UniProtKB/TrEMBL annotation:
Gene3D superfamilies: 2,3-Dihydroxybiphenyl 1,2-Dioxygenase, domain 1. One of its GO terms (biological process) is L-methylmalonyl-CoA metabolic process. InterPro entries: Glyas_Bleomycin-R_OHBP_Dase, Glyas_Fos-R_dOase_dom, MMCE/EMCE_epimerase, VOC_core. PROSITE patterns: VOC (PS51819). Residues 10-157 form the VOC domain. The keyword RNA-binding does not apply. CDD domains: VOC_ShValD_like. This is Lactoylglutathione lyase family protein. It comes from Algibacter luteus. GO terms for molecular function: lyase activity; metal ion binding; methylmalonyl-CoA epimerase activity. Keywords: Lyase, Metal-binding. It holds the Pfam family Glyoxalase. Signal peptide: none annotated.
Length: 170
């Protein structure tokens, strides 16, 4: 008899491609408060190191170098920032209906203050702040963009708290 030993996997990190690595590190460390784990550095295409070979495996052969930086959230989730010298420097058209990564979400109980800070750094607010349970609970959310056009969401409370009450039940 086989026992199913499935268990929930933890989230390690997300990789974001940005047009300017230094501006992105500044935004995410100053606005989000994320810890800088590794300052921006250059990775060159070469086969002599494990990192070089790994990048060739991932990116193929059509590159020569790129910049990378690593940040971390308060709960240890990694934010891996990439900046390539070639490629389109604008965010792709926002289209949540197509298959692919739609957004990521961060949590901050002071959603209004965080949105103001995002705006002051050149980001955008994509919608009004909305409440999941307007008359019962203080759970709020809002979609925003960083200054580079990357869309993300803000929750005031944890994912479990927000959905455990059945946000869509009424």
């Amino acid at each position: 008899m086989t026992t199913n030993k499935n268990y929930p996997k933890s989230f390690s990190h997300i990789g974001l491609t940005v047009p300017n690595i230094k501006e992105a590190v500044k935004f995410y460390s100053e606005v989000m408060g994320w810890y800088i784990i590794m300052e921006p550095s250059e990775v060159k295409k070469e086969k002599e190191t494990a990192i070089g070979q790994m990048c060739i495996d991932v990116f193929g052969n059509d590159w020569t170098s790129f910049e990378i930086a690593h940040l971390a959230t308060s709960d240890g989730i990694g934010i891996e920032l990439f900046s390539f010298p070639n490629g389109i420097k604008e965010a792709p058209e926002f289209n949540p209906f197509n298959t692919g990564l739609f957004h990521f979400c961060i949590q901050d109980p002071n959603i209004e203050e965080l949105i103001d800070k995002i705006l002051s750094y050149g980001g955008k607010q994509r919608m009004p702040i909305r409440a999941y349970y307007p008359n019962d609970k203080p759970f709020k959310m809002c979609y925003v963009e960083d200054p580079f056009g990357i869309v993300f969401e803000i929750y005031t409370h944890s994912y479990e708290l927000t959905y455990s009450s059945g946000a869509y039940s009424k």
